[in-house]
Amino acid sequence: SGFWHGASWTFGIWGALNGALLIPEMLGTRAHERLRSQIPGGEGLLPAPAVLSRMLTTFLLICITWVFFRSANVAEAFSVFRKIIVDSIQPNSYFSAFDMIASNVEYQQTLAVLASFIGLEWIRRKHSHVLANLKFPRLGRWSIYTAALVIIMTWGTRTTGTFIYFQF
Predict the structure, then answer these.
(1) How far apart (Å, rounded) are the C-alpha atoms in residues 69 and 2?
(2) pLDDT tens-digit profile of 115-138?
(3) Alpha helix (H) ranges present in 29-104?
(4) What's the CA gap between 125 and 41, in Å, rounded?
């Protein structure tokens, strides 16, 4: 699937890594076990520690593949990995990130909205989307849609950039 996104080794690596990450799941569980629970994280309010560990591992591994997807070339991808590793072992980088967030209201607002969306998605994960099966009257649903649109328009991107697929 990687070369579908462009003629670059980074996309080939991205596709190969995504495919390779599916292999343990496919070989390690039977089809009926994979279908046992269609609810991400299980039925409870919080996932079991083992489930949470698998969720975080999946997130980390997919983020690693995205580095290849977004890098201009393989050397740039490895440069990003080097920077991540070097910064992760230096405590000052954590403090500077916290200081940056603490001193910027827009970052705080963005994190609050993001946390709200993630929380809503988690609570409503048994449904096809967040507003599915709610017994809100039409005015209530449209108020939520309008509020979401206002949030997007208020905190959305104000600059334009080249659409990623136009770069090839």
Answers:
(1) 9
(2) 998 898 888 888 877 877 777 788
(3) 31-34, 49-70, 74-88, 91-102
(4) 9
